[in-house]
Sequence to fold (1646 residues):
Amino acid sequence: MTDTRKPSALRGLVGSRTRTLLAPRVTGQVRYTDDIHLPRMLWGRIVRSPHPHARIVRIDATRALAKPGVLAVITGKDMPERFGIIPWTPDEYPLALDHARFVGDAVAAVAATDERIAHEAAELVDVAYEVLPAATDLQTAIDKPEVGLGKGGKDNVSKEVDLAFGDVDAALAESEVVIAGDYYYEGSAHVPIETHCAIANLDKNGLLTVWSTTQVPHYLHRELSRVLRVPPTRIRVIQPPVGGAFGGKSEPFSLEFCAAKLAMVTGRPVKFLYTREEEFYAHRGRHPMQIHMKVGARRDGKLTGVDARTFIDGGAYSSFGLVTTYYSGQLLTLPAFADTYRFRSTRLFTNKPPCGPKRGHGSVQPRFAFEVSLDKIARALVIDPIELRRKNLVPPNTTTLNGLRVTSNGIEQCLDAVERASGWKDRFGKMPKGRGLGVATSAYISGTNYAIYPNAMPQSAVQLKVDRSGVVTVFSGQSEIGQGCDLMLAVLVADELGLDLGSVRVISGDTDLTPVDLGAYSSRGTFMNGNACLMAAREIKSKLVAAVAEKLDVDPRNVLVTRGALVVVHDPARGVSVTEAIQLAEAKFGTLGAVGHYNTPKLGGEYRGGTIGASPAYSFTAHVAEVSVDARSGFVRVEKIWVAHDCGKALCPTIVEGQMEGSAYMGAAEALLEEHVIGPDGLHKGPNLLDYRIPTSLDVPDLHALIVESEDQEGPLGAKESGEGPLHPSIPAIANAIFDAVGVRVDRLPFSPARVLSALRKKQADEQATATAAAE
Amino acid sequence: MLPLPVFDHHRPRTLSAALDLLARLGDKAVVLAGGTDVLPNMKHGLVEPDHVVSIAGIDELRGISLDREGDDDKLVLGAGARLAEIESSILVRRVAPALAEAAGQVGGPHHRAMGTLGGNICLDTRCRYYNQTYFWRKSLGFCLKKDGTVCHVVRGGSRCVAAASNDTAPALIALDADLHLLGPRGARIVAAHDFYVADGIKNTVLEPGELVVRVSITRRPGRRSSFEKLRRRNAIDFPLLSIAVRLDVSGVETPRVDAADVVVSALGARPRRVRAASNVRPGTPFDVAARELAEGAYAECKPLPNVDDDTEWRREMVPALVERAVTRLEG
Amino acid sequence: MYDWNDSVPFVDASGHAISLSGGPVRRDFARRVRPIKVVDETLRDGLQSAAGHQPDAAQKIDLLYAMAAIGVDVVSVGLPAAGLANAEDCFLLCREIVRSKLGLVPTAAARTVVADVHGIARAADRAGIPIEVYAFIGSSPIRLAVEGWDTDFLLGAITAAAREAKAAGLPFCLVTEDTTRSNPDVLRSLYSAAIDAGASRICLCDTTGHVTPYGIEALVGFARHTLDELGARHVELDWHGHNDRGIGLPNALWAAARGVDRVHGTGLGVGERVGNTSLELLVENLGLLGARPRVPEARLVEYCELASRALRYPIPAGHPIAGANMRGARFEVRPYRATPEDASASEPLEPMEKLVPMCMKIGGSAVALAVPARRTLLEALRYDLDLVGTKQGCDKGDCGACTVVVDGVATLSCLTLALDADGKEVRTVETLEGAPHIDALLDGFDRLGGGQCGFCTPGMLMTATALLDRNTRPTRDEIKCAIAGNLCRCTGYGKIIDAIELAAKIRRGEAEAGVGLPGIENTPPPLPSNKSSREGRQG
Fold:
């Protein structure tokens, strides 16, 4: 908790509720990508395939080029280079070369002097297709290998993972109770309020600058260079502030390549702005998963074995699919687990917009199946669901079944916190008809040991420039997508060097100005970027202390950094202002500057895929959800969600609470409202914000964020992630609360009123049947 | 962004100027009031006018008042009245509560601040195969309401079954409201019930160049009304089902229902007046009326997969909403 | 270089000018009152062309664009009476002209029979554009004898057809086939009947390729003289000649020089027994003679190629514009590469859309701009005024990110035409005061984490501004209802509602403002001279 006892001068910014300094960003003074207009800028528009699966026979651009205002048209032939975020599965082209693989797949691109003309010109590009048989749902992809979307066209398999730890069959055999269930987790989209946007400009020296709403400027920089066949030294990628991403902007997309190519062809800046519909075609959202899971337990509640068979609907391309398939099982072994475990997951290609990483990336779906199974076991063994979890917790400082090294682990405090806050003990099972409580837990990675392309260089780096005026500028490769990493760095530097936020600047996401950071994904921001920043800040601090110690003729160990001044420990009156300390250090050591970096230690099990899920630290979360279910209509209303999250140390409590509430809210939305559904004809059911519904302010539960701090040994000042972890338990907690409220299990997402009502009707019918049977 | 087509913009100051303009421009012109229905449809290529006539600024169309006509009190609402004004108007809440409740549940707060009563009355019918972008509709092969010849809701159907999705329509019908129209052929009054026709492509009797100018609702003593809307979210969404109930009640201590009218909408192109409501016997107790009307409505209403595909559930919700609307009126 | 085209008439020994036209040809063009229009008949059905191939609708539309690209003025869209498919194609072509604003005047052929004219009227209604009726009838003695017609029959047919066109509000042109071998008296009676019945155009035809420039000189003179006599100076003349004697093109140029208003041609000269005047050469030559703006070479090549593909008629190797022999001379045109920008230099340089001036009051200061009618307020703010604080999330009213305050009302700027905000006060996030006197809402959002990615925040701020302007003490539920149209994906709305509550308190003076603003303690005092301006500023 914040050390409020200390006098304000000594109290650090870390742990206090500082301002987020967002006023310039929300009043148009700081420009998001679409806010940038360059002189003589052209508008681009992508020509998309209307067929779910087709061979591209011929593209004729004559009519488009005949239209006044149209300057250029490019097709797949202009960039015939495969790319993909995972180096082992590059299966995408900027513009489809010979096959379109889903309705909305990019086939050509036009550039015109005006947005309307670009839209009309796209309709004038005549593409001749030869329609091919398509697999537009998971079951068809399984049943019809002849559609041949996989490698070599012999089947539709994208990735297969089959891992086992211990003898599961034996464990299940001697279990008192084995709960087997089929769960279907529906796909969902990121729906950031800002859609994808990219601008490219070739300056008169031939330097290509690309502005983009990306989460991974470094990977985009590499892929642009490879696909455009332009040396990386002649490309600069700038990532302005991003209007929400949630994983949907963590790989290169067609619009970035098309903007760059058209800028090079026409010699004029080109802007591509996806419409909301195109955002659903770019997708990379939550993978739909069909999970059959068996969980065994002994009479006393000790979990014996878990066996899962999962089919994953991957969509048209691989994207992060290889990693997702591992995540569909690897992270289940925390926080509470059994002694043996086997999971077999198969990711299949389908003619649908490609799925990828959405907040929680692949471990949200199995978590739902597992935490609901635990609830079923608790009911079967008549054990309190929270107690069942307490009986199986993995302790701190240990290694899990599948080789994940666990350091700090605050799951017990999390369970205590939500139990107390929700009044679980005297309300669970005792609520009036139609109201119920449900609990669920989860754990998540704080960054991953697995760098996307194998290299020995640091995964994150920060550079500090210290100016004699007292301004310290932090240059960080990290991507600010709304998760608050810029402010986190400012607070860390301010506390280390005794500054206030007004004299710290943070420049991030510019491959010319900032050192390499791999990007905003797998919740690595705080842990890796924070550590890199601390390393650099401490190097500067030691120089300031040395210079002041020399001036005041004291031992450096007795110099204390406070807000605004460096003072002598037991004689605070004697001291030097920070600005003067900087000038003294600059005089003594020469111009001040420092570079900090971070690399994870060697982690993960010694087996193929062992490094996926291996993280330097794990966050832990427990949720209790309270719901009311209207039996007449099937409407489920989530009244409250208590979220207890072990984030190691809350560097900026306001932001951590924001991430916890935002995650729980996004999870509740997937549980109740969202479904990213593609029809049998390959057409998205409703690619707009009216048909694809996300909650409004009138559809959201009261969210209570309870911060738990387990002070991680390796985290920056003990901090761990809080961006993705808190999402996982939302869905199972709501499912379990529904059962507690009306006694029905809805094992398929979303829990729409129609689905809940039909489950209630079925339950009433079964009860009648058993009643009449008993009566005879 | 979604660019609008090229057109000429006209902003007549007075009603007569607007009508002359519309008469001259004929079916090449489109009327723009709040813009919350026409502009999205233009951005989807569903409406491609050469002229847009903006009438939001014409003050003659504003205003909500209670006029005495003979021995009847008539609530008169200008077609230009904003839905937010209707929602918060004391007069409307007293005389036509169903209309106030309906206006209060249209879209989100911004839609209600911009949208007008006339605009909502003339709302284009909706269907999930129609209200999509040009690219989407072209990939689908279009539908018979726009650019195509096939219906994707009723296989092989030749008639458009897009749903009337305006919340004020069922309320106005249940309240026996009169719509005052003005056009090239002069003024005429059409009962709300007769204003709508069962044609998904154009579900009103409005002629080219004709405008809805005013709505009048006669105040009846003992008349109560309520409105229920079924949607997945509590804002922004169009109705999956909307139900207006009007009861003529007598008796003070134990109120009895003497007459009823139940109108169910968002099923097909024309809001449906439930026949069972007309044979409610005077003096029926509330709970009996509630059950009768609910069962009658359930029997007559069979939703189509035009706005959603949970048709079974939407049908289940008809009696639930009718019952809730009726019991709320017991007061 | 001595250009004989421009030469002064050659004077013989006796001072008598020997010149066919009595002066340099170029001068004739310069003297013209009305500019020469070019009519493309390639798509008229039933061309009895040797190829006889009927292009499909898409290819016809391709040709339409190519015609527009080379500056064709009038286009025949077919013969609707020839069949259902022809009528449908005719409608599709007209709709394409309307929808893409191609600026082509459509005409359709018809026999001088009421039913044919009625067919054209129906097509015109469906397409929503008037189609000129070109009604043809045989007028030479041979034809009359063969058909067994007499003049009265001709007069009756022409009058009936012309009246029908007039009734349908369509311009009517009388096309007298084989004019160059018709009797002047017959012609005079046909013309007067047609004009009386409302004809506005006469087409002089050399359907048998019989005439020479000398004949044209006489015929055009006779036609002009007859129209003057009939007091029908407004009636225009067309020329339609064939290539039987290989002089179709010079004849057409000559007719243009001698004052006809429109000259006809077909792509690659396709049609009739031995071909029509070739349109591309007609356009090229009229350009060279200064009678029409020059058309870039590449566009003419494209026209020929498209015509050749549509009509399945190979381009002769020696074709002066698109022939294979000529192609070597020019750069290799890649199908999808852009033609250089200046290629369209010859197009008339006026804005593609009409701009309408308007004025708005934004944060206390008047702003004037000119916008196309289709411009939404959101586009005007972001593109024209560079006020990029207002964001676009869906552009059709589903998300609220574009909310601004118009005359005190929170409004979706993506569903408001810019011209409908003319003369109104528009408040955007740019008008909110910054530090040190930071706006209460900005202050609240900043201190309580009301914004994470910040993209929905502008919409939230303006919605809340309108709310707090009318309700100084909103309950949490009232705040929830007010922002129910503003979608946020990051926060879960909780901290946004807290922030708005705090802002309400700050505006009521019940909470301290600007707490923790960096450097607020040492804000410079306002300059004494414009201190009053400090208070006067509405922000």
Chain A touches chain C through 82 residues (CB under 8 Å). Chain A has three domains: 37-132+214-265, 289-450+605-765, 460-598. DSSP finds 18 helices and 28 strands in chain A.
